[in-house]
Amino acid sequence: MISDQVIPINIEEEMKSCYIDYAMSVIIGRAIPDARDGLKPVHRRTLYAMWEMGNTSDKPYKKSARIVGDVMGKFHPHGDSAIYDTLVKMAQPFSYRKMLVDGQGNFGSIDGDAAAAMRYTEARLTRVAEELLEDIDKETVNFVPNFDESLQEPEVLPARLPNLLINGSSGIAVGMATNMPPHNLREVCNAVCRIIDEPTASVDDLMQIMPGPDFPTGGVIMGTAGIRDAYLTGRGKCVVRGVAEIVEEGRNPQIIISEIPFQVNKARLIEHIANLVREKRVEGISDIRDESDRDGLRVVIDLKKGAMPQVILNFLYKHTALESTFGIINYTIVNKQPHVLNLKEIVSEFLKHRIDVVRRRTEFDLRKAEDRIHILRGLLIALDNIDAVIATIRGSQTTDEAKDGLISRFGLDEVQADAILKMQLRRLAALEHQKIVDERNTIQKEIERLNAILASEANILAEIRAELVDIAEQYGDDRRTTLGHATESIEREDLIEDKPMLVSLTSSNYIKRIDLDTYRMQRRGGRGVIGMATKENDGVETVFVANMHDYLLCFTNKGRAFWVKVYDIPESQRTGKGKALVNLLNLNDERVTTVIPVREFVPDKFLFFATRAGTVAKIPLDEFSRPRQSGINAITLREGDELVDVMLTDGDKELILTTKYGQSLRFHEEAVRSLHRNAMGVRGIKLKYDDTLQSASVVEKDHLLTITEKGYGKRTDFDEFRGHGRGTMGVRNILTDRRGGVVVSSTAVSDDAEIIVMSASGIVIRTKVSEISIQKRSTRGVRVMKLDDGDRVVGVAILHSDEVEEE
């Protein structure tokens, strides 16, 4: 009869209660592994069903469909695809460190290929899986009813080995997830033995034995800091890199990938690299081939001639799954509740379980041994009184009467009497009698051994330790994942080839960099090519060569210094205008007049400053190693003066200062004492009339190359310039008349160098220094660059021989 009574229910409370029940069902019954055997219910049920049907490693394979049917019909009332996926994963050598299923057929690949249908594949347990199930028939674990209470299934497996650490586990529940990495079996067993020997051992002590995860796909773990966090707290991460080798033996270099990070799909990795090449996000790759076979993984990346393999490899680490982060969360089920465990707690939970299993197994074996020896004692009594026993049996009318007669006459119990009645006549032989005696003595010793194990927990632990040592010897192997040193995150600089670039700066402070290959070699006197499209009333003022990883010290006309990397300067087309420096530097009503490329800020180098009014100063280079974003003061300028040139010296050089009207003064830099930043400096050269200082150069290399604004130039021997005292007027260097114009640049060059000359209209010519003739002082020189009317030379960059060879 249906009741008409209505029971009011709070919908919020009902939803909360139902959702919590659902969440706990997912957590306990589906997604999170048990800390004792390291298995989720579906894995445990699959392995137990295979064990129950005799599908062991020493028996023939059975169809996967049959296994899935048994699991689903007896223990796991869910979809067959979920069960088969579980079976497949346990048979994949790239998913499990120690496979629990031995599969025959197509069980998928590291490329993400799906396994064949279950009707086509076959499977059986591996020997390692049998170690998880060993002794399950000895009442070592509790059994619970299956879903319809028609059968019994194990609550947990006996697990002779710490499977949770060896194979790891991953799963997403409700409100939590677990992601535990696999480890090396030998190391795990040794770590458990260490805890048995020394219960107070710390996590750091265990890490001496078990330094980190050991993934089935190999790879390199970069640093152990994140692993230590995971081992201490149960949460952490480890960065895993694939193993890649740079081969430069053939015509073009190659990158050969032989191992990839755990759980990375090889086919998708290759596809991702190909997309990066197609989108031109990475340059220098000409071909990608997958040459993997049954002997191992092998992905070959062919590089173009002149490519930088390490730069490309760093890019792949940065932008592809060739370097992956494995986040570790040690969520496990302990006493039917989810907990995050650290390494020592995981080992302790396994040991608690094994202590209980070994105790129950020993008690079971002891009962069986005592039952057997009890029967053997009865058989020996019967054999010692065989004639009387036979007479008693023959004189009885029924079996029960014979049993009662044996019990009453010989002091036997019912079990012993039944055994005597079932005894075969062949046991009456003398040798059979001795076998019973030997068996009794053997079982007696076994009983003594079992009682000794049960006498103390220390003896149980010793038994567990012996089993672990045996397992480590049988199934242990070497690490596949190596441990590397922690590296800083790959910075942008690691992804950029350190090659020479031509950097140009206009009078309006537009800057750009261009690959030197853009400019082909021309003979002296050529017209050049367009190097920069300039605005009206703007022209190129400075041009120089610097490597991509160089620091650029940018000095303004007001004597302030800024700091920028060459690769931070936008690369432009040959005719491009470039980018305004105000967008890169925090300039304040000032413009950059001099840029010095620097690789390292060492204290034994100096920056030699020269101003328009002829003032010079020498300041150690290391004082400029940390300029602020807002800039720093380099030198103090007098009113109306401005900075025109800065040189890098070693403190023991001779210098040549050259003025706009061609006067040059040579003196030793020892004549200028070292100052600190923001100093005012001293007089370097005495100027006359409206002359100004134009450039400064170190006396080195072969000749002094002087270029004028009308495109004329010459090389001059340094011996032509005798030394004068600092602060004097010097001697004439070059004829500066209306035809040649004033001096633009005067710098030391090697005869095998090249120069790049740029005009105010952006025309660039690149030519060899050796094509410019050597002339005496007070001459005009030869035409270096043919200019259009109204155009003028504004910058000269020297390309030294080593940079030419590198290019």
Automatic annotation (TrEMBL):
The gene is gyrA. It is found in: Cytoplasm. GO terms for biological process: DNA topological change; DNA-templated DNA replication. Few gyrases are as efficient as E.coli at forming negative supercoils. Not all organisms have 2 type II topoisomerases; in organisms with a single type II topoisomerase this enzyme also has to decatenate newly replicated chromosomes. SMART domains: TOP4c. Its EC number is 5.6.2.2. A motif (GyrA-box) lies at residues 522-528. Its main location: cytoplasm. The active site is at Y120. Residues 32-495 form the Topo IIA-type catalytic domain. The keyword DNA-binding applies. It comes from Methanoculleus taiwanensis. Belongs to the type II topoisomerase GyrA/ParC subunit family. This is DNA gyrase subunit A. One of its GO terms (cellular component) is chromosome. A type II topoisomerase that negatively supercoils closed circular double-stranded (ds) DNA in an ATP-dependent manner to modulate DNA topology and maintain chromosomes in an underwound state. Negative supercoiling favors strand separation, and DNA replication, transcription, recombination and repair, all of which involve strand separation. Also able to catalyze the interconversion of other topological isomers of dsDNA rings, including catenanes and knotted rings. Type II topoisomerases break and join 2 DNA strands simultaneously in an ATP-dependent manner. PANTHER family: DNA GYRASE SUBUNIT A, CHLOROPLASTIC_MITOCHONDRIAL (PTHR43493:SF5), DNA GYRASE/TOPOISOMERASE SUBUNIT A (PTHR43493). One of its GO terms (molecular function) is DNA topoisomerase type II (double strand cut, ATP-hydrolyzing) activity. It catalyses: ATP-dependent breakage, passage and rejoining of double-stranded DNA.
